[in-house]
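PROTEIN SPECIFICATION:
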Amino acid sequence: MTSMTGEPSMADTNAKAERAYYKVHIEAPIETVWNVLVTTDEVLPFFFGAVCRTPNGLAPGEPMAMQTKDGKFASVVGKVLEFDPPHRYSHTMMFTNMDDPASTVTYELKEADGGTEFTLITDNVPAGTKSEKSMAQGGPFITANLKSLVETGKPLMSGRMVMMLGPLMGWFTPKVCRAENWPFDRIRGF
């Protein structure tokens, strides 16, 4: 919504995007998909080459950070909301290079047709923000690369490109994304 002056109206400031769904069928048992999804301390091509790090594992209330392999930068931080193996995992999410408030990401897994129906759901993403645009691009990337990794052992070409370019991106990453700016105690306080 835009006001008559062309400036965002107050309604825009508080607007939230509708719930977004990114769904894919993966030809693998639900436990296999789950175990790949919740891997920590390893580079994950479907999460843009990030490593999911937590101080005490993935459990409700625990902070998590998607960091570069060398641990110097954090791209996404959040707090685990639900962790119900092998069906549901949910966490808050905030991009460290954006000023947008935290939103929620949920991963749902269901057994279906000899495989697994995997759904990535985003909630409360502020409408019209960089976070909304990033999630609109990231959702399909994550689901497609997770499917390829689980089914073939390799990510798609897009995932392989991210893995190749990741080590070079440190030069272009804003200082605000440095992991030292996002200690787990700070994330836990969100």
